[in-house]
Design a protein that fits this description.
The complex is a heterodimer of chains A (about 425) and B (about 300). By secondary structure, chain A is of the alpha/beta class. Chain A has 2 domains: about 250 residues, Thiamin diphosphate (ThDP)-binding fold, Pyr/PP domains (Rossmann fold); about 140 residues, Rossmann fold (3-Layer(aba) Sandwich). In chain A, about 45% of the residues lie in helices and about 15% in strands. Chain A has a 6-stranded mixed β-sheet with strand order 10-12-11-14-15-16, with helices on both faces. In chain A, strands 4-5-7-6-13 form a 5-stranded mixed β-sheet, sandwiched between helices. In chain A, helix 1 packs across helix 2, helix 1 runs parallel beside helix 7 and helix 3 packs parallel to helix 5. Chain A starts with a strand and ends with a helix. Chain B has one domain: Rossmann fold (3-Layer(aba) Sandwich), CATH 3.40.50. In chain B, helix 1 crosses helix 6, helix 2 runs parallel beside helix 4 and helix 3 crosses helix 4. The longest helix of chain B has 20 residues. The radius of gyration of chain B is 19 Å and the shape is globular. Classes of the chains: A alpha/beta (about 425), B alpha/beta (about 300). At the A-B interface, helix 3, helix 5 and strand 9 of A face strand 2, helix 2 and helix 4 of B. Strand 9 of chain A pairs parallel with strand 2 of chain B.
Chain lengths: ~425, ~300
C-alpha cells in the first residue's frame, strides 16, 4: 500500500490497473483523455497486461466493450459528455445484454453551447439505461469505487454494467492524496471475472441481443433488468462492509455529514459536495444546525436510505448540478418522489440549480440557501426553484453580449 | 483459383446448417446467400448482426443458427466484431480457451448499414486490420422498412421514396472501390445465383487473415417487385448483363471471376423487375435505358482493357 498524490483521472486509471482489466476500447475526449493515456503508457512499459484498442467513435467503443464483455473478459472504458451521448444508443443496448463492465464518465456539460467544464447533465441523460451509477466526490473514492463497481457489476444477482462518475476538472485534474492498495489486497477483494456459461464459445452456441415480438416479452426482460438493478442496494451494503474489513475505508450508499441532528440538510452529488461540507462546518460554527446528505449510488436510487436520513428534517436544500429543461433539477424531482407521502417527510424541499458548466458555488451561496430554507420553514410555503447566479455574473454576460453586438455591427459596416 | 475444393456444383456442401422457417420473405436473395455461406463457415462462428432484414432471423426464443449470434445496432456491427475477436484472442493468449474453442467472427449487414451508417465502423475495422469476415447482403434499398432508396440503389429504380417517373436520381455508390482503397486482405462480390463462384470466394477468404469483405447482390422480390420464383434467374441476369460484375480483390489486384460473354443487354435484367417498370411503360424510356447500358459498357471496356 502506498500513498500518492493522484488526480481523479489517475485514480480511475489505478482502479482499472488494480482490477487487472483485460480489455480497454478507448476514444479520447477532454477531460477524460488522461485516463487512457496513463493506461496506454503502463501497457507500453509492460506494467499492465491489457489490450487497448482505440476505436473510431464512442458508439463503436461501447459496442466493442459490450461485445468483449459478452465474450467473457473484464472490460474497462471511459468517456465524457458528448462522447457519452454519442454512445448512448449502445449504452442502452449493452445494458440490455446484461454484460458486466465498468465505464468511467468524467462529467462535462453538454452542447450547446459547447463547453469543457463540468456539470451532470451528461451522466444523468443515462439515468434510465440500466447502467448503475456511482457519483464520486474525492479521488480516493474514485479508485475505491472502481473496485466496488467491478464486484457489483459481475455479481451473479446483477450482471449489469456500471458507470463510475467523477467531475471534470474539479476532480479529474485535481491532485489529492490517495492510498493505492497493494495488488495482493485487491486480489483478496476482487477475484478474476468468471463469466460462467454466459459467453461465446465454440460448441456452446449463445444468442445475445435477439429481437422480441410483442409487449409482454419486451416488458419481461426490461423489468427483469430493473429488478436486478434494485438488488445493487443490498449487495453494495455487503460489499462495502467487506471492503472496509480489507481496506479500512468505510462507504455506505449515502454519505451523511453532520446531518444526524441537523434541522436543514443539503443534498447534492459529486465533488461539489465537498464545498457543501466546508459550508456546513462554517454554519455549524455559527450555531446553525445544518448537515449534508450525498448519495454515492444514484442508480439504483437508495430511496430508503435517503428517506431515513431526511425523515424529521425541517427543510432540505437540493443542489442540482444539472438542469432538466422544462422541469428543473433532476435530483430534486427524484427526492420528491422518494419522500412524497412518507411520515415525517421534510415539509420544505427546496430546489437550487448550481454549478452548471463548471460555475463555482461560493460559501455565501450555501449560507444563502440555508437562509432561504429557514424563511420557507417559518412561512410554511415552498420557495420557487432558484438558479445560483449573481448580479455581477449577469453584468459580465451582458457585457459580452454588448461586445458581440458591437463587433457584429462593426463587421456589417465594413462589408 | 487452382487449388479450390469446389470444382463442380456437386462439390458444394450437401449438409445445410441454417434452420428453415425464418421470417424472411419468400425468394429472399440475402437469405439465399447466407444459407450458402453458413454451410461453408459452420457453427463454430459468431454472427455479429447490424440492424436490417436479417435482425429478425433470431426472434426470442428461436434462432435458425447452430452457432452464436450477437445483434448490435445499425452503425457498429464491425465494432462488435472487434470486441468479440479481441476477447477471444485475449482468452487464447491467457490459455483460458483452447484453439478448438475459438470462433470465426462474421459481420452480417444490409446495404443500408454497409453503404451508409456502418461505413465509418467498417473503415475503422480495416484500419485496425481486424481479423474478420464481413457479408453485406445488398438489396439496393432500405428493405426492412419497405424499400426506400439507400446509397446502394441503382440509378432510375423506383423505391418507396422515389416513385416519380425517373425513379431514383442518384447513382449506386461504388462500395467495392471504397473498401479496396483500404487495402484489406480480401474483397469480393458474389450473388446467390452463382453458388460455385460464391463458394470459391468464401473458401479464398477463409484461407486468409485480416479484414475479408464480401458484397452479395441480394435480389429482393418485395423490394424489386418480381415473383419470388425469379430470384435465381434475376441473379444470373445481373451477372450475364454485366450489371453486377463478379470480382475479387486480393494482393492489391482486382480480378473478374466471371466475364459475361456474350454480354446480354441490360434491358433483359431491368424488364423483369417492377422497380424498373416505368422505363418500359407507358412508353419506353430509350434515353435512360441507353444511359444505363452505356455505363455498363464503359465499365467492361475499362475492365477488359486492363493488363
Amino acid at each position: 500500500m502506498t500513498r500518492q498524490m493522484l488526480t481523479g483521472n489517475g485514480a480511475a486509471a489505478w482502479g482499472a490497473r488494480l482490477a487487472e482489466v483485460d480489455y480497454l476500447p478507448a476514444f479520447p475526449i477532454t477531460p477524460q483523455t488522461e485516463i487512457i493515456e496513463t493506461i496506454a503508457n503502463w501497457i507500453d512499459q509492460g506494467e499492465m497486461d491489457c489490450r487497448m484498442v482505440t476505436m473510431e467513435s464512442e458508439h463503436s467503443m461501447i459496442t466493442a466493450a459490450g461485445a468483449a464483455a459478452a465474450t467473457g473478459v473484464r472490460v474497462f472504458t471511459a468517456t465524457s459528455s458528448q462522447g457519452l451521448l454519442y454512445a448512448s444508443e449502445m449504452i442502452y443496448t449493452v445494458a440490455g445484454w446484461r454484460v458486466p463492465l465498468v465505464l468511467v464518465n468524467v462529467s462535462r456539460g453538454l452542447s450547446s453551447p459547447i463547453t469543457l467544464e463540468p456539470d451532470h447533465n451528461d451522466v444523468l441523460a443515462m439515468r434510465d439505461c440500466g447502467f448503475l451509477q456511482f457519483h464520486c466526490s474525492t479521488c480516493q473514492e474514485v479508485l475505491d469505487h472502481m473496485l466496488l463497481a467491478y464486484r457489483l457489476s459481475e455479481h451473479e444477482k446483477l450482471r449489469l454494467p456500471v458507470i463510475v462518475n467523477l467531475d471534470g476538472f474539479y476532480l479529474s485534474f485535481t491532485r489529492e492524496p490517495v492510498e493505492i492498495p497493494s495488488q495482493a489486497m485487491v486480489d483478496r477483494f476482487l477475484p478474476p471475472f468468471d463469466a460462467e456459461n454466459i459467453r461465446f464459445r465454440a460448441g456452446e452456441p449463445l444468442s445475445e441481443g435477439v429481437a422480441v415480438l410483442g409487449g409482454p416479452t419486451y416488458s419481461y426482460f426490461r423489468y427483469e433488468a430493473h429488478l436486478a438493478s434494485l438488488q445493487a442496494l443490498a449487495v453494495y451494503d455487503d460489499l462495502a462492509r467487506e471492503f472496509q474489513i480489507i481496506f479500512g475505508r468505510k462507504y455506505r450508499l449515502i454519505e451523511e455529514y453532520r446531518s444526524a441532528n441537523a434541522e436543514i440538510v443539503f443534498v447534492m452529488m459529486g465533488s461539489f459536495a465537498t464545498k457543501a461540507k466546508e459550508a456546513v462546518d462554517q454554519l455549524r460554527a455559527a450555531g446553525e444546525k445544518v448537515g449534508l446528505v450525498r448519495p454515492r449510488l444514484f442508480r439504483p436510487l437508495p430511496v430508503e436510505a435517503l428517506y431515513r436520513a431526511l425523515a424529521g428534517k425541517k427543510g432540505v436544500a437540493v443542489v442540482d448540478q444539472n438542469l432538466s429543461m422544462g422541469k428543473g433539477g433532476v435530483l430534486h424531482t427524484e427526492l420528491a418522489s422518494a419522500l412524497y407521502g412518507r411520515p415525517d417527510a421534510p415539509p420544505v424541499l427546496a430546489s437550487f440549480i448550481g454549478g452548471l458548466g463548471g460555475r463555482d458555488i461560493a460559501p455565501e451561496e450555501f449560507y444563502e440557501m440555508v437562509a432561504v430554507v429557514r424563511q420557507s420553514i417559518i412561512k410554511g410555503e415552498l420557495p420557487p426553484p432558484r438558479l445560483l447566479y449573481t448580479e455581477k455574473e449577469l453584468r459580465e454576460v451582458r457585457k459580452l453580449q454588448t461586445m458581440a453586438r458591437t463587433m457584429h455591427r462593426g463587421r456589417g459596416a465594413k462589408s | 483459383m487452382s487449388t479450390t475444393e469446389f470444382k463442380f456444383l456437386r462439390d458444394l456442401p450437401s449438409r445445410h446448417l441454417l434452420g428453415t422457417g425464418t421470417p424472411m420473405c419468400g425468394g429472399c436473395g440475402g437469405l439465399e446467400t447466407l444459407h450458402q455461406i453458413y454451410d461453408l463457415i459452420g457453427a463454430k462462428s459468431v454472427i455479429v448482426n447490424a440492424a436490417g432484414c436479417m435482425t429478425l432471423l433470431a426472434v426470442y426464443p428461436f434462432t435458425p443458427f447452430r452457432g452464436s449470434w450477437l445483434y448490435t445496432a445499425m452503425a457498429s456491427a464491425p465494432a462488435g466484431a472487434q470486441g468479440v475477436r479481441d476477447a477471444l484472442d485475449i482468452l487464447k493468449k491467457k490459455g483460458e480457451i483452447s484453439p478448438d474453442e475459438d470462433l470465426e467472427v462474421l459481420v452480417l449487414t444490409g446495404d443500408g448499414s454497409a453503404y451508409g451508417m456502418g461505413l465509418s465502423a467498417t473503415s475503422a475495422a480495416m484500419d485496425r486490420d481486424l481479423d474478420f469476415l464481413y457479408l453485406c447482403y445488398d438489396n439496393e434499398g432500405y428493405g426492412n422498412t419497405g424499400q426506400q432508396y439507400s446509397a446502394a440503389t441503382p440509378h432510375g429504380a423506383r423505391t418507396a421514396t422515389s416513385k416519380g417517373s425517373h425513379g431514383y436520381p442518384g447513382y449506386k455508390k461504388d462500395l467495392f472501390a471504397i473498401w479496396t482503397a483500404h487495402k484489406p486482405s480480401y474483397v469480393a462480390t458474389v450473388v446467390g445465383a452463382e453458388p460455385l463462384d460464391l463458394a470459391r470466394k468464401v473458401e479464398k477468404a477463409r484461407s486468409l487473415q485480416g479484414p475479408r469483405l464480401i458484397i452479395s447482390l441480394a435480389p429482393c422480390p418485395t423490394g424489386w417487385d418480381y415473383e419470388p420464383a425469379e430470384t435465381v434467374a434475376i441473379g444470373k441476369l445481373a451477372v450475364q448483363t454485366g450489371i453486377w460484375p463478379l470480382r475479387e480483390y486480393v494482393d492489391g489486384k482486382v480480378v473478374h471471376t466471371k466475364i459475361p460473354h456474350p454480354r446480354l443487354p441490360v434491358e433483359e435484367y431491368l424488364v423483369r423487375q417492377g422497380r424498373f417498370h416505368h422505363l418500359f411503360t407507358p412508353e419506353k424510356n430509350e434515353k435512360l435505358l441507353a444511359e444505363i447500358q452505356a455505363r455498363v459498357d464503359r465499365y467492361w471496356q475499362e475492365a477488359e482493357s486492363e493488363p
